[in-house]
Amino acid sequence: MKNKKLINWLCLCGVLSIIFYLLHDIIGAINYPGYNWMSQAVSDLTAVDAPSFVIASGFTTVYKILHCVALLLVCILVKDERKSLRVGIYLYTIMGFVSSIGYALFPLSSAGYDGSVQSFIHVYVLTILVVLLSIVSLTIIAIGSFKSNYKLLGILACVSLGLMFIGAIGSQIVPKEMFGVVERFSTYSAVIFNGILGIFGFMKNTVDE
After folding, report:
1. 53 within 8 A of 111, measured Cβ to Cβ
2. 115 Cβ contact list (under 8 Å, min separation 6)
3. What pLDDT digit, counting tens, does each position of 106-117 carry?
4. How far apart are CA 72 and CA 115, in angstroms?
5. Model pTM?
């Protein structure tokens, strides 16, 4: 602990970001009369016309700042790592920024999908891009981690990838009443992996020494 630098400590912003994402989900739902987390997507909480828009968006803004800071710092700390691991983390960071900036610029205009241009970009452009970047980056991180002897990171990347697939596929086949449950497999797998990378960045000097 004594040998940790400020950059290592700041990587823990990734762990803190998980808390704020969870708060946006819980407190947002409390401030959205009639919201059913089991059937509704988490993004419904930050839809422009949602009663929870202001408070939920406040928590997600803090979440986005924290996780972007953590990802950028991890990118700096892995500059000397194997190329595959670096590329994977760089792509994951790009995904994080696309998600943070893109969803802020194009939130759902209404809960669910109302056919507006804004909602179309949110659902069919940003979401598809984020999912593709997540799959590619997590796959490369897993490969790079195993090659670099960071087996635990590789295993956790595989678990996150698996949960993401469960969420993506499950949301298409489960009853509407369960859509929110499986959709959260995808969203929370990415959110939690941000924290995992933050811990990896915090431990980085310990690994090198």
Report:
1. no
2. none
3. 887 776 666 778
4. 35
5. 0.90
Distance CA 193, CA 141 (A): 11
The answer to whether 88 and 137 are in contact (CB under 8 A) is: yes
Q: Which domain holds residue 15?
A: 7-208
Note whether residue 132 is domain-resident.
yes
Domains of the chain: total: 1
Contact 122, 115 (CB under 8 A): no
Residue 1 forms part of a structural domain? no
Q: List Cβ<8 Å contacts ≥24 apart for 46-49.
A: 46/103, 46/107, 46/108, 47/107, 47/108, 47/109, 47/110, 47/111, 48/107, 48/108, 48/109, 48/110, 48/118, 49/109, 49/110, 49/111
> Is 176 within a domain?
yes
